Hints:
mainly alpha; single chain; MetI-like fold
Amino acid sequence: MKKLSIGQIIIFFFLILIALAQLFPLFWLFNYSLQKSSNLFGPKLLDIPVDPQWGNYAKAWINGRIAQYLTNSVIVVAASIFFILLFSFTIAYACSRMQWKLRKVVYNFVLLGMVIPIHTTLLPNFIWFSKFGLIDTHMSLIIPYTAFFLAFSVLMFTGFLHSLPFAMEESAYLDGAGLGTILLKIVAPMVKPGFVTVGIMAFLNSWNEFIMANTYLASETKRTLPFSIIRFEGEYASDYAVQFACMVIVAVIPIALYFIFSKRIIAGVTAGSVKG
């Protein structure tokens, strides 16, 4: 085995410390989700439960309406990802591969969305959604989630598209293929890593969003998964242990997706930035 220098050993242990610092909050959250709420307030930073309260998870699932809220979250996030991929891919193709006068203006205008915080539009969106009858509907979340992740997605796809040669598209045009055929059967397969990267990052960006959901959704039948956590808040007391169990359940899916697709995310971001 190759010998490590002192500098490499120091960097190695420093990275281990950073990893432990990142993982400790997750372990702390899981640990306290197995406690009794009456045992949470004490002098110890970490107190391993002697009698794990696995029933907290059953209570969180039933009383927190996890199944119903999870279904709503899947609907909202899946629709948002679909529109983000559709619009960002086509916009990026139009601005990077097609020749027309205002393409640079449109491209720069779309990228301006990256400097606008999503929650600064809460009030204007609420007014417009009220006029169009979109308040307390899933579309009131799908529209802003799509719009505010569009700029980053266009930038990602542009990086991938700039690396592709025109030869295959030109050959397809000469053979009589239409634009739709070229996009679906030639260009899209070549930028598949871009679809995976953008899709996963769009999921992580929308999954835990709460402020807009709390502003636009009122009925229990439309609310998304983060609402399960606040169901255990009372006026004078809260069931914190069950809240922690809800947080663990909410966090499991994005954490699992990240570990499964982490290599593809990093490879996609690196490839898009280098190739662009």
